[in-house]
Write a structure and sequence with these properties.
By secondary structure, the chain is an alpha+beta fold. The protein is built from 15 helices and 34 strands. The protein has a 20-stranded mixed β-sheet that branches.
């Protein structure tokens, strides 16, 4: 190792493409490794390793520890850039917890796929950006060997706290998100360059919390959904321990953690052991932290009730609402933003008065470092001497940002659209939330159609009602849209269930009432009930959907009228209410990564329909009566005699046929759709089978499917089926005219993607 380290020290170039193995020696050797007080073992070997050797003098015993970095040329620049981090980790963890007990620490670059790394006593396989975290596992996993399966936060979470703290010695923006977005160009663009690191990092876990999708950080590892394991166990725990550190004071916190390390090294401590040591060492009861905050998904909320000045002092009344009453930092600032004086409120008290003695106070701020785990920070600042002391200016922020204490934000993004009626459309989307949801969330997207010379667009407003028990979210909403030949207004009530673990079925119930005006249809109202159940894992999934929609409309029907002198044809206004029942069952299974087999079954039934009704079920897609899918040329679908198949676009609803088979039903329809991804190629082969009540025949269609943009865009190339006169195309023109596509923009909707990611 020493000789290899000398060779590496003399190298001036590390070519990333030079990964050839040098020839092996003929002689063999036997190596013996011996180490006490370890509970695991790993060994790595690669003849291509570059070796960096260093020494760390421990802060207390002054003992020397040898550190090694072993890496290939593949990412040599990153390893050299971060070579100091193994020394930083060994020294900082020893300083804040207790001296490293072994003589060596090693970080290895290897072809082991285990996230960013996998730790073992004294050695870790890691990516260069995770060196500190993985070396830190020598304390949290190796020496303090807690049960990571039962208490992952006690291992990964506290280790992440020390990882971020170690990185902050060189750069204060050291968190999971703030390390990438801070006072750089990204930070300036998103308006966060003047915020503390926690303000940038917290939305990563508060995003799930605002949607009712977070989980207690104290849950066993097996209960976490994938994203929550990263944002909850790692980031949220780290942020909460930073919050605890600031509350206790760094010196008291470090002293308590020294005691914990000294008493419990090599003894497998549990959460109650950590709490007992911290309480005894600090003299503080910490049940509010360990029994109330850590195991809870309840979001605390603190705000400044009033701030007054009298007798040379300033008094601030802090009020806590909700189930948790946690300590929060209160600071007095001058006009330049400099902190003059700070205090912490006491845990468990709803209303407290904090008294400041400082002169020159311009404003009082709750949680100036953004460590308090709350969502609503709009009432965390009180400006003295103002007519509206709690009102903050509104800032127009492009794309996204984080909630701030000192300003309200309205987010804006450009919006584009096109259809054959309005032509090209240009506008902007204005919305009040993205990363974290609020109680009231809205998107308003006005646009201008250059062909129709009119305003188009949509608006979507949702208000969250209290949800408890089985329900994680209850939303009262209203959506309006105006495009092409229609406009709609749809009030709705949506229920979503709480997701306790990765195996919990995701369920949604929607009650909606659609008001639709369409130039090609009678004006109608449509009360709708839709229920959806989804379950999926890494390799397979199932989705079940049932919808019941009643179309209520009036139309004129011809009638013969008889009088004593004549008989003549007249019309009469008649009210119709056909009811549509639709059931979808879809199952998919991945037979290899990114390749799957998908089977969909559909059954539809129209009750109380009449022979000339405009409402039908479509074998090759639905007429989209409720305007749930954007169509480029919707008008032609109604104006042409060919109906649904007169245009190339389909919504893949109802029968879901990809071939343009021009069949509809006013009574019932059944269909089966099979899709199989082909190996190597980007194509899938499909087969659609269907039957309608009106004809005693099984229709079919088959061909190739090309999907891209997360399956938001799909193109279908029909090879054979009932869309052709003789089952197969007679010419290339015949084939070309049958090519169709679908466009599902919901799969690219950033608001929906963010929720699905949770």
């Amino acid at each position: 190792m020493d000789s290899l380290a000398q060779v590496t020290a003399g190298k001036k170039e590390f070519r990333a493409d030079d990964l050839d193995f040098p020839p092996s020696a003929q002689a063999t050797k036997t190596l013996h490794y011996k180490q006490d007080r370890i509970h695991d073992f790993a060994w790595f070997a690669d003849k291509r390793f570059n070796v960096l050797k260093s020494q760390v003098t421990l802060p207390y015993s002054k003992r020397e520890v040898t550190t090694w970095l072993l890496f290939t040329n593949r990412e040599a620049k990153q390893w050299l850039k971060r070579a100091h981090e193994i020394d930083d980790a060994v020294y900082a963890y020893s300083l804040w917890l207790g001296d490293y007990p072994y003589s060596q620490a090693t970080a290895v670059d290897a072809a082991l796929s285990a996230g960013a790394g996998m730790e073992y006593p004294m050695v870790t396989v890691t990516e260069p950006e995770a060196i500190i975290h993985e070396v830190g596992h020598n304390w949290f996993y190796g020496i303090l060997a807690s049960n990571e399966r039962e208490h992952p936060w006690l291992d990964e979470g506290i280790n992440s706290y020390y990882e971020f703290r170690t990185k902050a010695l060189r750069n204060k923006y050291a968190g999971m998100v703030s390390s990438e977005v801070n006072n750089n160009a990204f930070g300036k663009f998103f308006g966060v360059d003047d915020l503390p690191p926690a303000a940038i990092d917290n939305p990563a876990y508060l995003s799930a919390a605002s949607r009712g999708l977070d989980q207690p950080v104290t849950a066993p590892a097996e209960q976490f959904r994938t994203l929550n394991y990263g944002t909850g166990v790692y980031l949220k725990t780290a942020q909460l321990f930073q919050y605890l550190e600031k509350y206790l004071g760094t010196a008291r916190f470090d002293s308590a953690m020294h005691t914990y390390y000294r008493q419990w090294q090599f003894r497998h401590p549990a959460p109650q052991d950590l709490q007992a040591v911290l309480e005894k060492s600090t003299g503080e009861p910490l049940g509010w932290f360990f029994q109330e905050l850590l195991p809870s998904t309840t979001i605390p909320d603190a705000h400044l009730q009033t701030v007054t000045s009298s007798g040379g002092t300033t008094q601030a009344v802090v009020r806590q609402t909700g189930k948790l009453a946690l300590p929060v930092q209160v600071a007095a600032l001058d006009a330049a933003g400099k902190v003059l004086e700070t205090h912490w409120t006491k845990p468990g008290e709803r209303d407290q008065t904090v008294v400041f003695q400082a002169d020159g106070i311009d404003r009082v701020v709750l949680d100036p470092e953004y460590l308090f785990p709350e969502l609503d920070r709009r009432d965390n600042q009180y400006r003295l001497g103002r007519l509206f002391p709690k009102t903050e200016p509104i800032r127009l922020q492009p794309l996204l940002g984080v909630d701030r204490i000192d300003q309200k934000q309205l987010f804006v993004a450009p919006s584009l659209g096109y259809n054959t009626y309005d032509g090209f459309q240009l506008g902007a989307a204005f919305y009040n939330s993205f990363l974290t949801e609020k109680k009231l969330n809205y998107v308003v997207m006005p646009m201008y159609g250059f062909k129709s010379s009119r305003l188009t667009g949509l608006a979507d407003v949702k208000f969250k009602l209290p949800a408890q028990g089985f329900l994680r979210k209850v939303e009262l909403g209203v959506q309006g849209q105006r495009f092409a030949n229609f406009h709609t207004v749809t009030p709705s009530l949506t229920f979503q269930n709480r997701l306790k673990n990765p195996n919990t079925f995701r369920q949604q119930l929607i009650l909606a009432w659609h008001f639709v005006q369409d130039d090609f249809l009678p004006d109608f109202q449509a009360p709708r009930l839709a229920y959806q159940l989804t379950t999926k894992n890494a390799v397979s999934g199932t989705q079940f959907t049932v919808e019941v929609t009643q179309f209520r409309y009036n139309t004129s029907v011809p009638i013969w009228v008889a009088t004593p002198n004549t008989i003549y044809l007249d019309s009469k206004e008649v009210k119709f209410s056909p009811t549509q029942f639709r059931i979808h069952l879809e199952n998919w299974h991945k037979y290899r990564p990114e390749k799957e087999i998908r089977l969909r079954g559909f059954g539809g039934f129209m009750a109380d329909n009449y022979s000339r009704s405009p409402f039908v079920l479509g074998l090759a897609g639905s007429p989209d009566y409720l305007k749930q899918t954007p169509f480029f040329n919707r008008n032609e679908m109604y104006a042409s005699a060919e109906g649904l198949t007169s245009i190339r676009q389909t919504d893949r609803q109802d029968g879901g046929f990809r071939n343009p088979v021009p069949m509809v039903s006013r009574e019932w329809m059944a269909a089966l759709n099979l899709t199989v991804d082909l190996p190597v190629t980007p194509f899938a082969v499909y087969l659609d089978l269907g039957r309608v009540q009106e004809l005693d025949k099984v229709f079919y269609g088959t061909g190739l499917q090309w999907s891209f943009f997360r399956d938001a865009v799909q193109i279908y190339f029909p090879v054979g089926g009932d869309n052709y006169a003789a089952d197969f195309p007679k010419s290339f023109k015949d084939f070309r005219n049958s090519i169709r596509y679908s466009l599902n923009l919901q799969k690219l909707n950033p608001f929906r993607l963010l929720e699905e990611l949770q």
